[in-house]
Design a protein that fits this description.
The protein is α/β, with parallel strands linked by helices and 474 residues long. The chain folds into two domains: 132 residues, no CATH class; 211 residues, Rossmann fold. The chain contains 18 helices and 14 strands. The strands form four sheets. An eight-stranded mixed beta sheet has the order 7-8-6-5-9-10-14-11, with helices on both faces. The chain has a two-stranded antiparallel ribbon with strand order 1-2. A two-stranded antiparallel sheet has the order 3-4. Helix 5 packs antiparallel against helix 6 and helix 9 packs across helix 12. The N and C termini lie far apart (60 Å). InterPro entries: Mito_gene_expr_regulator, Mss51-like_C, Znf_MYND. Keywords: Metal-binding, Zinc, Zinc-finger. One of its GO terms (molecular function) is zinc ion binding. This is MYND-type domain-containing protein.
Length: 474
Amino acid sequence: MPAKCKDRERIAASGNADVPSLPVGAIRGDLCFRCFSPLDDILKCSGCRRAYYCSEKCQKSDWKLVHKNHCKIFQTINQVEEEKYQRSRTWAEYRESLLFIIRIIRNAAPRDDNLRYIVQAQAYCTSCRRTVVQLATRKIVLNRCTKCRLVFSCADCSSTPEHPASICEIYQHFRRTENFRINFFEDTGKATPVTCTQFPRDTRKSLADATGWFDYYVKISDKPQIDGKFKPGFSSIEIDIDRNGSDREKDEAERMLMFLLCATDTLTMPLTIAQALEDIQWEKPHLNVHIVGATDRELVLLANFEELLHLIPSLRDLHITAIGPEIPGPSENDSFILSRQSLDCCPPCKSGGRERSISLYRGVYHDYCKDPKFERPDLVVLFNSRWVDGDDAKSHWEPTIKKLVADNVPALFTTYNSGEARNEQQRMKELGANFVIEVEENKWKGLVPTPEFIDEEYGMWYNNAYRYIIQGSK
């Protein structure tokens, strides 16, 4: 039984925020809710029928730690689902029902993201779109795809889920990354692979000239040994190794591939920033970056930002200010400021006189700009902010965006998908913003796919998939 996964709350409480979240494989009944082990004999919560376990021990443990706070809410959701029951419905109808239920959850438990996620990611028949609970109530079997194990059809519709081969393939890929991260956490105590260039560069290598992540690892960073082992898109190991390599060689190559692929999801932030600095032709010894809308994710991945010191030879001092309402602090209700605090650097950076530091501000950016400690940034960054499509678009984001345009500061934006990018581009043009870089696919997006459960059936999003840069107004 995986020891660390089943103890993840205690590990997080001890100060390690880098723990795995509940996998989609668990939510869809293929892994245990508590220890994330594959399920052979499934134990299901008899109350809500939404939580799955490998043993009574895991079920009892999960009840004490998590599920006792969720079960009654899930039972209420099941009742709402029954009231809205339809024998068959379109994706649009299913989506509308799902959004209605999510609003109920937000009212019942506004701060519990896991609760919403479990409902969003629930298993359902992709033909009639009845949910796993609705089908179980009627004693109708839900059949799982034997390849990806994440798509279903009910016995009334088909014995085999019918979904395009391309969808099945990307779900298989996603499942591999989930399983890798679970195993990586068990081996290392960290859920997120981190790999930076080992030594600072003496000369700057242009990211604009690189074709993507394979070029970065081989030609810009320091991993030429992967050349010939993986396909450039990191889809699989090379055919020669797959056909002729020993089991050990194939296993080692597969683990290295998954490590580097998952590492793109953490390196995407510093490399997207580095690319933007090239675009605005920034070349100075001191860099002050404001990350707006920052959450725990940015704070967990702070170590990766040292890559900026390694890739830009002229850079001696990197300061990052993370600003956002969800920044952790002593009190949840008050604004909170952590003044400049030095962060540790690797030995080569220390010996070269390089430094990095961080400041934190809990609140919205346009309020932070009024604070006496505010320092004008060289670059403002908004990673996947959803400033047009999010719930707080008007209340929080609109004043911040107008402030950024008025202040004539370079601002880098990324989005999860092309739809969000188009919506933001349109609104920026309405505000009269000047585009330094128009909306485009980001070559430094994370390569780990994450399923989209609301906006698009079978949709996938990627961290920082699209990007653009503005500065001032026209």
